[in-house]
Each structure stands twice: as C-alpha cells, then as structure tokens.
Design goal:
There is one protein chain. This protein is of the alpha/beta class and about 650 residues long. The chain folds into four domains: about 80 residues, 2-Layer Sandwich (Histidine-containing Protein, Chain: A), CATH 3.30.1340.10; about 140 residues, 3-Layer(bba) Sandwich (Glucose Oxidase, domain 1), CATH 3.50.30; about 110 residues, PtsI, HPr-binding domain (Enzyme I, Chain A, domain 2, Orthogonal Bundle); about 270 residues, Phosphoenolpyruvate-binding domains (TIM Barrel), CATH 3.20.20.60. The protein is about 45% helix and about 15% strand. The protein contains 24 helices and 20 strands. Strands 5-12-11-7-8-9-10-6 form an eight-stranded mixed sheet. An eight-stranded parallel beta barrel has the order 13-14-15-16-17-18-19-20. The protein has a four-stranded antiparallel sheet with strand order 1-4-2-3, covered by helices on one side. Helix 23 links the parallel strand 19 and strand 20.
C-alpha cells in the first residue's frame, strides 16, 4: 500500500523529527519506506531518512507492506502533515535569551578574517548574548586505529567487539535519557544521537570495513567519515550539521573500543568560556551547562546541535571559526558576542569594561523579568489578569511552573493521542488530566477536547480525503460524529474534575447545536460514572472562538457556556481566508489586521455582557505590544508559551501603573 502527501513538518525531516518518525515507523511490523523524487529508503533508518533530505512542502510517498500496513500509513502520513511534529518539546522548553527573545536559529554569518584587538575574530553568531570569562580549552586528542590488517581468523571476534562497543554507547545514552535532569530539548538531541549509533547505515558500513580486514577503530572512523561526507554533500544547512553528530557518535564508539574516557568538562570553572575545535552534542548535553558562560568552536553552525543546546540554555555561542580556533588555545580570557559573532582574545581593559557592562545589563534584564515569576498582575481597577501557559504534555509542566504560570490556559490533548499507536485509554487520559490538575492547583487548567482533523490524523481514526481539511471534518465536528472516542475523553475529564480546577473547552465551534450536543454527552457520561460508582465531578464548559461563525453568534454562545478562549492563530486564518501554512499569503496572517482585531473585540464584548470569562490562547496573547489592547477589550486571561509569561506579567504591571 502507498499514499502520497505534502510534508508540513517545520523545516522537514532533520534530526529530531526524523528520529521521532523512525520511532513511530518501528512500532509497526510492516516494512515501511519513504519515497521522494523516485528514491526510496527505509522509514526505520534515521540516517537514510535524513539523507533523503525531505524538506517542508515537498511531496513524498509512504509505502507499507505487512499486516498493519493501513495503520502504519495513516500514522506516518499524520506525522508528516503535522507542522510541529518532533519539535513540540524543544519549543515548549526554549527559554528567553539575554535579549529576551525565544530561542531560534540565528542566521548564518560568514566568518571574517581576524582583525585588530578591538574587532577580534568573527564566526557564526549561533546563540544570542554576550559573555566574558576565563578560557577553558577543550581539545581532546585525535583517535587512530591500530594501522594493521586483520587476519581472517580475527574478523569474527573484531565484529563482536565492535557490536559490544555500539551496545555500550547505546546503553550509556539510554542512561542519560532516563535522567530527570536532562531537559526536553537535550533529551531529543541525545535520542537522535542514539538512533545514529544504532543505525544500520553506520554499523553496516563499519562491519563491512572490518570484514575487509580493518580493525574496529579504523573501520568506525572510516564509516563515520563516509556517512558524514554524505551529510555534508546535501544542500541543506540542518543536514550538513548532522555530519558533526555522526563524527561524535563514531568517536564515542572508538573510545569504548580503545578503553579510554574522553576529556571531561566536569571541571569547567563557573562562568568560563568553553573553547574547542568541535564539541559533540553528547558531550555538551552532559556538561554542567549552568557553569558555562559561553561557547566558541571551530566547527558548527547556527543549525548544529551545539547551537541548539546553547540557545535552549541561554548560553552565548560563536561557532564556525575554522582553523582560527587555534589562536584561542593559549588564551587566558575571552569575550564573545553571540549576536554579532565577535570573539576577542585577552581583551584590554577598555574592552573588558565594555563587555562586563553589557553582561551586567543583560543579567539585570533577566533578573528583572524573574522578579515577575510570582507576581499576580492586576489592572488599575483591581481586576486580576491570569497569565497561563499553553502546553501539550506533562513534560512541559516544569517549564511552565518555573516561568510562573497561573495555571494552564490551553492543554492540547491531541498530542497525547498522537504519541501513541493506538487511541489512549480512558484511564491513561484520566491520569494525565489529573496530574495536570494537581500540578497547577489551585489555578485552573483548561483542557481542549480532541482537536484533530484530516491535516493531522491519528492512529485509530480513519479520516476521509479532503480538498481542504482546515475547513473539513475536524475538532468538535469529528468528536460529535465519533461518540465512542469523545465519550471516553469526556469520562476521563469528569474523573479528573474531582480535583476542582479542571475546565474544558471545545475547538472549532461554529454552531450552538455543537455545544448542546456536547452537554448531552457530558450528562450521559456523568450518569454512567455514577452508576459504576466511579468518583467524578462537573466542570466548566467553554468554547474556543476561532471561526468567524463563532464570533458572529458570540452573544448567543455566551449564554450557553462558562467562558470563551480566543484562538487567534486559526481565527486570523479564517477571518483573512489565508492558509497560515502557505508562505505566499503569510502577510495576510496578521492578527493586527483591523478585521481580526474587530472580531476579537466583538467576542470580548459579548462575553463581558454575559458575565463570563474571556481569555486568549493564541500566539498573540504573549505580545507585549497587543496586551494593553486586549485587556482594554475586557480579556482577563492570557495563555501563552512559558517563555513569554514573565514579560507578559511585566507588561500588565506596567500598564496598571500607567507606564
């Protein structure tokens, strides 16, 4: 069987999305292939999949042959059509950098020739922020094989030794993945490295070289170099950066074979600038990141895993210095600017004072925002504004709490469904919703019922082919047509509601009848649970305002529900009749367009008149430039990415003070 689709995964199938795709594919017994431009590769090989260089908006075909071929194709197509596939954890955990922006890939800048002492060296500005501190040189020695050919009788034993080393590296990475201290973003990177270590492309290439008479270390170095060269040859910055990952994995295997430990970063001083020709993502993910003041590397670019880790932890980084990194081997002190790519060796007094001042200013900004973590923002009239978090998994709870979230304004339950090869059970859902409620009590937790459609299907639900799935069988429409699925979720929510702070909202509402039908199902579920003697409680029922129809009937809807939550992402696309995934009409997807702002105001007016809460859970809720307008309209709840929470609280507090 086969089915074609357009890939919507943001930036395509680079490391982590490819790793997640492979993990999903391996969950099926069927043989599965992904085909692009006539070239087919196994969907169960991360390396082969990444080398296929599948990019966003390209057409691919998924082929499956086996007993569960239909389920495999449905699940994999659903993954490919999900813009956030493989990226949710990373985005949710990305903190603000020194400049106060969410972590995002910095643009590539070409390394310039070294200049005078004031200008220093220039490389790739890979992670924002400025730093100055003592240099910590990290230049592990190169590894080499035995340099002799194996005898025929030695080959089998050498292959066994190689396989044992690969197993040891995988086990080491598994132990790292099991540690609670590893952040979600770093966890995804380590998982991608583990997949490379287990991939037949690398191990097969190495075993082929061993069978040719090479010792295991030489074979591993050769295999890693061959595959890394393949990645370097691809016309894609993300995939070029994976060459470094292959070398890093190969090095780990070689170290096990040689019985050696790599040079440790455990002793790096507080605030030191890490200097290296190259740093494997595996090494950096395990390093004491809170002690690292900055990173300067000869290799790597803005899309390398070194850069991603640095950005996610707010560490300034300049990469891609090439051979000029040798000039820093004997440096005593280093200053770097991750915004411009500037690196200064042993800065003079004036430069040191300049950087110290900039570091202090950045720290004050961060500290200033941190002070708002526990603030309960109020307007001048005393109204409390709830600043909550948008999350999609239990793993994101810690980041939301650290940011000072006043509850959850949007819990995306579709991610719970998409993570599994089968529909999640009632018990599994109830446990998840209860964990959320307990984590944020006494603040409210608003759970959105299953918002899924033909553009992002899940295993266990067969979706029809639709010309425009954004206007099709999705959200509340699908749920009401599948009460077997919907009632399971509603029962789970009623069970979790015993904790007292669960609220439920319905997506894609465009008709009063959808709310009334849902209430009938809620009552049925409550009656069933009562008859079964299962503890449960009622919950407030609200709706997302994301269709023009919902805006126009908002006064009537407000009489039926307990609250509104405005989903500006979809509302903007529907108001402007512009697909938000289509770059050619991106300029139309502007929430500040008068038509969209008018729709928000009409909704707020209807909610305020009816005396119900009006909130917002779209991306616009975290924009400091728009928050005053939303609050003036009557909104009293704003839900956003955890990275935006403290700045939003500061904006509201300043607004109340008349600043």
């Amino acid at each position: 069987m086969e089915r074609s689709t357009i890939v919507r995964v943001h930036e395509g199938l680079h490391a982590r999305p490819a790793t997640r795709f492979v993990k999903l594919a391996k969950g099926f017994e069927s043989d599965v292939e992904l085909v692009k431009d006539g070239k087919a590769v196994s969907a169960k090989s991360s390396v082969k999949l990444m080398l296929l260089a599948v990019k966003e908006n390209q057409e691919v075909t998924v082929r499956a042959n086996g007993a569960d071929a239909i389920e495999a194709i449905e699940a994999l197509i659903g993954y490919l059509e999900n813009p956030k596939a493989g990226l949710d954890d990373e985005e949710a955990h990305a903190p603000a950098n020194d400049a106060g922006k969410e972590a995002a890939p910095a643009p590539q800048s070409a390394p310039a020739a070294s200049g005078d002492a004031s200008s220093g060296l220039r490389g790739v500005a890979a992670s924002e922020g400025v730093a100055i501190g003592p240099a910590f040189a990290h230049f592990p020695p190169d590894l080499a094989g035995q340099g002799r050919m194996l005898q025929p009788e030695e080959i089998a034993g050498e292959i066994d030794r190689f396989r044992a080393a690969v197993g040891a590296v995988q086990a080491r990475m598994d132990r790292a993945l099991a540690q609670d201290s590893l952040s979600a973003g770093d966890r995804g990177i380590v998982a991608a490295l583990r997949d490379i270590a287990a991939d037949d492309s690398l191990t097969g290439e190495a075993e082929k070289a061993i069978k040719g008479g090479n010792d295991a270390v030489s074979a591993t170095i050769t295999a890693a170099s061959t595959i890394a060269a393949d990645f370097s040859a691809v016309d894609d910055h993300y995939l070029n950066a994976r060459a470094d990952d292959v070398h890093a994995v190969g090095r780990q295997i070689c170290l096990v074979l040689l019985g050696q430990d790599d040079v440790s970063l455990e002793n790096i001083p507080q605030g030191a600038i890490l200097i290296a020709d190259d740093i494997g993502a595996w090494d950096l993910a395990r390093a004491p990141l809170k002690r690292i003041g900055g990173v300067v590397c000869g290799h790597g670019g803005a899309t390398s895993h070194i850069a991603i880790i640095a950005r996610s932890h707010g560490i300034p980084a300049v990469l891609g210095l090439g051979d000029r990194i040798d000039a820093l081997r004997t440096a005593n002190e280093v200053a770097l600017d991750g915004n411009s790519g500037q690196v200064i060796i042993d800065p003079d007094a004036a430069t040191r004072a300049d950087f110290a001042g900039r570091v202090e200013a950045a720290a004050k900004e961060r500290a200033g925002l941190t002070a708002f973590k526990t603030v309960t923002p109020k307007l001048a009239d005393g109204r409390v504004i709830e600043v909550a978090a948008n999350i999609g998994s239990l793993e994101e709870i810690e980041a939301a709490q650290e940011a000072g979230a006043m509850g959850v304004g949007l819990f995306r339950t579709e991610l719970l469904f998409m993570r599994h090869m089968h529909l999640p059970s009632e018990d599994m859902q109830a446990e998840t919703y209860a964990a959320l409620a307990k984590a944020f009590a006494p603040y409210p937790v608003i759970v959105r019922t299953l918002d899924i459609g033909g553009d992002k299907p899940i295993a266990g639900i067969e979706f029809p082919d639709e010309e425009n799935p954004f206007l099709g069988w999705r959200g509340i429409r699908m749920c009401l047509d599948r009460p077997d699925i919907f009632k399971r979720q509603l029962r789970a929510l009623l069970r979790a509601a015993v904790h007292g702070n669960i609220k439920v909202m319905l997506p894609m509402v465009s008709d009063l009848g959808e709310v009334r039908q849902t209430r009938v199902l809620v009552d049925e579920c409550a009656a069933e649970l009562k008859a079964e003697g299962v503890p449960h409680a009622t919950f407030d029922l609200g709706v997302m305002i994301e269709t023009p129809a919902a805006v126009l009937i908002a006064p009537a809807l407000a009489k039926e529900v307990a609250f509104f939550s405005i989903g500006t992402n979809d509302l903007t696309q529907y108001i402007m009749a512009a697909d938000r995934l289509n770059p050619t009409v991106a300029k139309l997807n502007d929430v500040t367009n008068p038509a969209v702002m008018s729709a928000i105001e009409l909704t707020a007016r209807a909610g305020v008149a009816a005396g119900i809460m009006v909130g917002m859970c779209g991306e616009a809720a975290g924009r400091p430039d728009l928050i005053p307008a939303f609050l003036e309209m009557g909104l009293t709840e704003l839900s956003m990415s955890p990275a935006s929470i403290q700045r939003a609280k500061k904006t509201i507090t300043a607004m109340a003070a008349g600043k």
